Amino acid sequence: MTVYLPIAEMSINALVLLGLGGIVGALSGIFGVGGGFLMTPLLIFLGIPPSVAVGTQANQLVAASVSGVLGHWRRGNVDVKLGMVMLVGSSLGTVLGVLLFGLLKRLGQIDLVINLSYVVFLGVIATLMLAESLSALWRRRRAGGPARPRRRRTALHGLPLRMRFDKSKLYISALVPFTIGAIGGLMVAIMGIGGGFFLVPAMIYILGMPTTMVAGTSLFQIIFSTAIATFLQAYQNHTVDAILALLLLLGGTIGAQIGTQASGKLRAETSRALLAFLVLAVCANMLVQLVAPPTDAFSLTVTEPP
Amino acid sequence: MTAADRSHSTRPAGYRRFNRRAAGAAAAIAVVGVLAVGAALMLMRAAQGQSLVADLSSHLIRVSADFTGAEVVLFGAVDSPGDVAVVVQGPPQDVVVRRKERTLGVWMNTQSMAFDDVPSFYLFASNRPLEDIADRPVLERHGVGLDHLRLRPADAELEGSLQHTVFRRALIRNKQTAGIYSRAPQHVAFLGEQLFRTTVSFPANVPTGIYQINVLLFQDGEVVSAQTTPLAVNKVGFGNLVFAFSRQHAAAYGLAAIVVAVFAGWSAGMVFRRR
Question: pLDDT at position A88, please?
């Protein structure tokens, strides 16, 4: 069953897109990440132009995170207040990111920056997560009890504008979730990802949020940052392919539901270890692309379409 | 006024009838049609003293949802023996060619060169190898063959430089890899001495817009007659509507995309809740 994607200007098998959406959607439900860091490289691999992949991905993530957040919402696992503070930051980050994206594109360095950001962010985060979750799993096996969450007092607790977040049992400076949100927003615009793979560990390790709250709250915030990105990409760059997004989100929303239900059955440490491996795999793939000699050292960019 | 212009203004009614019929007909029927109409055309043209007439089996390619490529038959007649070359060019676009170099262990774009008015699609056909038909300056003047196609750098001072040669070659190679510049010339087949035909194939990723198809008649290494025929490659159906909407009402399109996504995500969540 072949469909024509009007913005990507290519024909592709609809079942491939549905299946891809479903698998990535399931992962997003399990881990509370948008799945964009998997989807964007896979779309590019299928021959979708990178700019269209990034723009469409933002649109698809809106649906995936709406669908994903519902399950967490019903279980009361969304801290709306904290999410709103992060949202203020991510809105600014997204707008800034779209401007930066345009500038880098004109300079011909956008692909390099995307690849480098993937490698650096994914590498650091995956290593941290893997170390943490493996040692937690190991402790559990030894002690037979759940690992105690660590609460450290760091310099972050000395910042001004402290706010109380009852749902997450936190009393911290609003600047911290704001900054985390802003970095997440930059990622939406530049890397075509929801930023969940950054937000989730940042919320666990920097904010010290309870793990149960993290997935729902990050998804809640991602809905809005991806919606802003969708609008800007469609309005400025004409890179949102609605047909492609519709197919991806059709598979993705169903997958996300399955994933959300499965996530309740997985131990937090196990789920984090699995995610860490996944993130590492994508990171390794990106690294290879950066250092391996390209098949053709030359590439084309159409600056003024017919 | 050129010979080509005159041929358009004197099209008879029977000519149009053929055009409609051939558009939907199978290749075999098309050949018969080509022969019949070609002969008729030739007689008329002989009376008017033109040396070349050519046309397409269709002047419109519809890119629909299930588009997997298309073929168009180009046919025509000449009144005296000669060589025929056909050049198909897509709508022009501005292109930047970038070169990657290894910097600090990482491959990054370092040099670049901008080109203006590059044909988005290029294909050519001839009845004989080009070098047997005409000399290089003649071929260059008419842009026949990829080696003779003029690709103009945006910075005019660079034209003819070594850098231009290298980047020009890279541009062609990349377009060929994408399947939108032909790798080898297509064949123009002569049926007898005066009727000729060739098949022009367009891939699934054909750029849309108005194409120019140039048919040239060579005699003794010079172009003695030429005709340009337009061909439209248009998106049709739902895909076209979406594309037009996304360009003409970009803000509304963006908002609609968000609303659809929110609704899809929400309804999927509801469906699963009831279960």
Answer: 93
Residue B273 at interface with chain A, using a CB cutoff of 8 Å = yes
CA distance B191 to chain A (A): 37
For the ranges A69-78, B14-23, B182-191, which has the lowest average pLDDT? B14-23
The whole domain housing A122 covers 2-144+153-291
Q: Are residues B228 and B246 in the same domain?
A: no
Question: In this prediction, what percent of chain B has a pLDDT beyond 90?
Answer: 48
B142 is written with which tokens?
Answer: 């008419």
Interstrand relation of B106-119 and B152-153 (parallel, antiparallel or unpaired)? antiparallel
Mutate to test the interface with B, among A18, A253, A288 (most CBs of B within 10 A): A253
Distance CA B263, CA B266 (A): 5
At A241-253, the pLDDT tens digits run 988 998 888 887 7
Neighbouring C-beta atoms of residue A157, cutoff 10 Å: 13
User: Quick one: which H or E segment has residue A303?
Assistant: strand A298-304
Q: Please check whether residue A169 lies inside any domain of the structure.
A: yes
pLDDT at B119: 94
pLDDT at A241: 92
**What is the mean predicted confidence (pLDDT) over A172-176?**
82
DSSP letter assigned to residue A244: H
pLDDT of amino acid B16: 44
Whole-angstrom distance, CA of residue B104 vs CA of residue B98: 18
Query: From the list B92, B109, B246, which residue is nearest A234 (CB)?
Result: B246
B266 plus B161 within the same structural domain: no
Contact between A62 and B265 using a beta-carbon 8 Å cutoff: yes
Is 50 exceeded by the pLDDT of residue B220?
yes
Q: Point out which residues pair with B118 in neighbouring strands.
A: B93
Element (H, E) at B22: helix B13-24
Q: pTM above the 0.80 mark?
A: no
Q: What angle do CA B121, B30, B32 make, to 5 degrees?
A: 140
Window 89-118 of B: residues touching A by CB (8 A cutoff) are 90-102, 105-109, 112, 114
Q: How far apart are CA A65 and CA B261, in angstroms?
A: 10
A228 has a chain B CB within 8 A of its CB: no
Same domain as B57, residue B148: yes
Residues B161 and B260 in one domain: no
Give the domain extent around B267.
Answer: 242-274
